[in-house]
Amino acid sequence: MKASRVAPWVVALTTVAIGWLSQASPGAQQPAAPGANRQAEFGTFPNREFIRLNLDKLKWNATENNKLGVETAVLEGDPSKPGFYLTINKFPPGVMSRPHTHPDERHCVVLKGTWYTGEGTKEWAPAKEVGLKPGEYMRHPSGGLHYDGAHDEEVWVLISGYGPTRADVLDHGDLFGRIPSAKSSK
Predict the structure, then answer these.
(1) Cα 155–Cα 65–Cα 63 angle in degrees, nearest 5
(2) How many CB atoms neighbour CB 149 within 10 A?
(3) From CA 158, how far away is CA 10, in angstroms rounded?
């Protein structure tokens, strides 16, 4: 995949996420502890350098220590800590997350492949899945029960949120699983 096709979505999602953070109502924001630097929460980052990343050279790590090939590249922040984060999740063909929730609201843009998503069910329900193509967006509300992943092709999804985050699997098992037959689950 050419970085020039993906880069505008990275910029667009980052701009939306930072704008979203900076427009939060003042009454809803917690006062900062004395001496705490909370500028990142409000979308201002003084003294930071510009950063450019080549998508072909990202550092990929196994997502949630899975053995099925799902990987995450962190572009900004640290999802395990308080603050804004921006990641790309890469799903190999035939691998889906199992029904789970996240404590934070997440904003997702498909970069590559068709990302299949299901919501509100306690088990995979292929007949109810919605496939999202590159450039399409989905918001995961905080605590929203869902699952997602790839059927017949590799899928890349850009995800932003405000950490710390985690995946709480409904049955407390592994986060990812193989679908029985990617071709028959459409």
Answers:
(1) 30
(2) 28
(3) 7
Q: What is the mean pLDDT of each run of 10 residues along the chain (186 residues)?
A: 51 47 46 48 70 92 94 96 96 96 97 96 91 98 96 98 95 91 47
In sequence order, the 6+-apart residues with CB closer than 8 A to the CB of 98 are 124, 147, 169, 170, 171, 173, 174, 175, 176, 177
- Rounded CA-CA distance 124/102 in Å is 17
Cβ distance 77 to 84 under 8 Å?
yes
In angstroms, the CA 149 to CA 116 distance is 5
Burial class (CB in 10 A: 0-12, 13-18, 19+), 96: buried
Three-state SS at 27:
helix
What does the block give as tokens for 74?
């962190």
pTM of this prediction? 0.74
**C-alpha distance from residue 88 to each of 24, 31, 130 (Å):** 25, 31, 20
Topology of domain 3-185, per CATH? Answer: Jelly Rolls (2.60.120)
Residue 126 in tokens: 């292929």
d(CA 61, CA 79): 13
